[in-house]
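Sanity check

After download, print the first record. It should look like this:
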Amino acid sequence: MNLENILNHSKTSLPERLPPSSCYVRAMFHTCICFPGAAGGVHDYRALLDALPGHWRITASQEREPYPSIPAMAEAYRRDIAGSPDFLGGWSMGGLIAFEVARTDPAPLMLLDVAPPLGYDHHNHSWFAAFVEMTCASLGVRVDVPKAGELNIAVLAAYLKHAGQDAPAALLAERWDTYQRHAGAVADYMPESGVSAPALLVAAELLDVQVDQWANLLGPTESLRLDTDHVGVLSSESMRAVATKLCKGW
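Expected structure tokens:
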């Protein structure tokens, strides 16, 4: 799949599923509402859908306008929630949105390699390097490009084309702008309180100390450590392990 197809999929819901503005995982007696990662969309949870039993249902949420903060995103997605979900969840930034929603509307949480919301210095993070890694992983390719700033968008497009992926620079630039806004929202997010709801915390690149920091913000927490990287949490193998926990109610 090329980047244009991925971005097009990210702007629409999976067919014959639930409403396009939110991501739902449904079972006969269970509902889990998931939220997108930074610059993410439908493709974030495709492997989870495949890993769940046939009676579970899932669509993906998609940002409809550029929200400036995690609380603003949570408020927008909260309007799409009907009833009381059994679970709220998400990967990366999506987990923070789920956490913020749960601060007002408590529900058990599924957090997929989500950094604890303690506030981060914008200048200490190699956002472009992370963006390159995420983009290449979503395309199934490995490229080694400079890690400076947005001037490297054209270079990234050229490297991807050389690797057999035609990713127009304009589309990459659009995705990079979204990623920067989302990364800034994550760095700035420092909630005033935690939640008392139980949680499944899936850790890959999270440090043990970060798992402990999450425990201070959550109710009873079960951790699942996966031998993969941040993007690899969304792989089929990882999602099978997560789905097993979901089906057992962890």
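If your output differs, re-run the checksum step. Summary of this record's structure: The longest strand covers residues 31-35.
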